[in-house]
Amino acid sequence: MNNFGEWPSPLSAASVASGGVGLGGPGVRVRTDGTEEIWWSELRPTEGGRVVLVRRVGNSEAEDVLPAPFSARTRVHEYGGGAWFISPGAAYFSNWDDQRMYRIPLAEDGTAGEPEAVTPEPEEPHGWRYADARLTPDGSWIVAVSEDHHKAMTATHGEAINAIVAIPAAGGEPIVLSDRTDFVASPRVSPDGRWVSWVCWNHPNMPWDGTRLLAAPLWQSKTELRIGNVKIVAGGETSLGEDQESIVGADWTSDGRLVFSTDKSGFWNLAEWRPGDDDSKSLTTLRGAEIGGPPWVFGQQSWCEGIDGALTVVVTENARDKAASLNPDGSLVEIRAPFVSYHGLAPASDGLIAVAHADDALPAVVRLDLVAQTMTTVLAPAELGVDPGWFSRAEAIDFPVGDRVSHAFFYPPARPTNVDGSAAETQDAEESDSLPPLVVMGHGGPTSHSSPDLSLKVQYWTSRGIAVVDVNYGGSTGFGRDYRRLLNDSWGIVDVEDCVAAAKYLAEAGLVDSKRIAIRGGSAGGFTVLRALQVSDVFSAGTSLYGVADLEALAADTHKFESRYLDGLIGRYPEDKDIYDARSPIHYTDDLSCPLLVMQGSEDEVVPPNQSEAIVAAVAAKGIPHAYLLFEGEQHGFRQASTIVRSLEAELWFYGKVFGFDPADRIEPLAEAVGL
User: Fold this and answer.
1) pTM
2) Which domains does the chain have, with CATH numbers?
């Protein structure tokens, strides 16, 4: 029997990269003859991370609509999202290379024209950026979020300027509708064209802290679009504090209601407002579950209106999603489907289209018939050619951390009993004469959560005999506002406590080897890694991917969207500089003693390379075994197939050296490694 970590796995790093196509959307276009086109986007690592628009008509094969080298991806907020949308006569998208908005003409016979620019060429590369756009009902204007990065503007204001703008649909100069707040999102026009709504917030808030939902009368002509007096529909302008309200996912229904998610009750629930009403009213009153999530990217919405006017919602409970129909009395009827997370909904003729994720298959685009409770596949999950016995299913665990409870998903090592695939039973740790190593994962954000859907980057480890625990530490979403706020003023404390507690819980339960535990994480998760290695002796190794090492440098050198994020997580800067110093891993490298692997993208604007370089220089000076890989051309998060392959193989090689096993994979040794 192979030792844990040495199992030959059919899931290679290359298959992880090729199977890691990210699905976005979806969207539906109905031609005048009733023919239905289903659209979605695909992020393809094998094409250098290009985002391609794809559609399927009826039973025909799916086809690419966006030709190379175009890529439907926006840099607004750096995290993007909401980069494309479909209208009856055209598809619109923001192009990655120049950040201009483009239009793809769509004929009634389905013919797609060549992309043509809608917005002017900026004076400087990426000077103007656009996201989260929609057409006005008459099709003459595009209402969108814009972000101005021209040097003259940023020099005057000290940062980029965000605004709601109107762009002639046929092309032309944008008209600014509102730029009086630091951030804006979700500009939506009512079905009768008489109102426009949007969400806004100001520093130091993040959109999950406190936002306002605004609405204003809209007047338009062929040459002009302007707004009237602005009404605050929900939320309020407050500083960081307990009385804040977060509004997310606002849009109009066909009968003129403005529906949105609000966490006023302590959990994101749906509410509605009609023009002329003084106040909004609640549509759902969930406790222990939520309809809504943190808007890290544009275009996120946890509900959609069907053709019949009924609402379908995505309910998140304990970081697991389910779709449900909303009854008029506020009750929910769960839609039976084998999925654990949803990343997009769109109404269709007989139900809805969804990008859905299961715990035993890659994401798919599916059609859900809400009446018949049936499901058909629009885009089947990518086939990996791997026996399902190799996949480890997420096991939800709750464990004590002092006087509170934290949450995680545990993935034990798994493989078919007969590794030739003739049996599908998984092999548990108890069947071996030793216990498996453990990789503790801390998600990014940190205001986010891990889901139990099938992740090839998790299965890469478990199929080799390495256990994984994915921790939804205090501060994670999907558990209500109080849990989400546990990280306020406590980043680098609560998240670390929970990761340490998860590792100890599994070791004490006899499920993992207490002497072979590593911790890994990206971005905010990388910060948790570095902090955990300094304050705990539970871990024998750590991997930081584009992680934060110097909080003071991050506060001074990150992008606008997150430039005041640390006010809530750490404290105000520079007033609380002493706290920033006390929490920054770079100042406590003497407390590091175990091997460290650091990986970073050269063009990361969120966590710049100097963060990784600083920690690497410090561990090198101390003589700690380490390795540093800098990937040219990568931004925040690795998207290129070659990077994904090399980073996974490097990490496996690293753990093999530290934990004393020889991977079955053929891996090029790290020439960058020192002391390993």
Assistant:
1) 0.93
2) 118-379 (2.120.10.30), 385-659 (3.40.50.1820)
